[in-house]
Amino acid sequence: MKRKSTAASQSSAFNSTTLAILAGVFILGIGVGIGFSTTANSSIENVASREVIDRSAPNPDICAQYGASAIVSDTRIFVTLNPFTVYVTQPRMQPGCVLRSNNWAILESRKLVTSEQVRECKNRMNTFGYTNALENSPEIDCLYQTEADKNRFFNQPGTGAPPAETGKF
Predict the structure, then answer these.
(1) Taking residues 104-123, what's their average pLDDT?
(2) Is CB count within 10 Å lower at the N or C end of the chain?
(3) Stated pTM of the model
(4) CA–CA separation, 1 vs 118, rounded Å?
């Protein structure tokens, strides 16, 4: 009778060891697969993370300290009236920066905007944004900020509210 119990004992030990090894390989495979699928590709073709956008912004250090990096999309729209047709150009995407309204002095001190432009932009409760580095003839525009309550990205279930300091420019 001892022979049967020894054989049964070795068979169950072999099955437990095999199952443990297979479970370990399975878990390792899942971990490696997740690692490969979530690795950020920071090439020019893939602008999928905030870090890539922040690094690409003109004057990234100034932009991070006094505003926020942005993706700027330039699109032109042509409307004909006879016949009525709307034509849209392919958007030109480029990195940009949006300054907080209390940091406009950076643009004024470098003589990139006049006090008249600042007054007009401030009267419309807007802010400034720019493309190209501040040292290399930046293209500066007065921007209008849309209302956050109309942004459908903020109303997704499971997403938190944006940080308070990023809400108003």
Answers:
(1) 91
(2) N
(3) 0.59
(4) 97
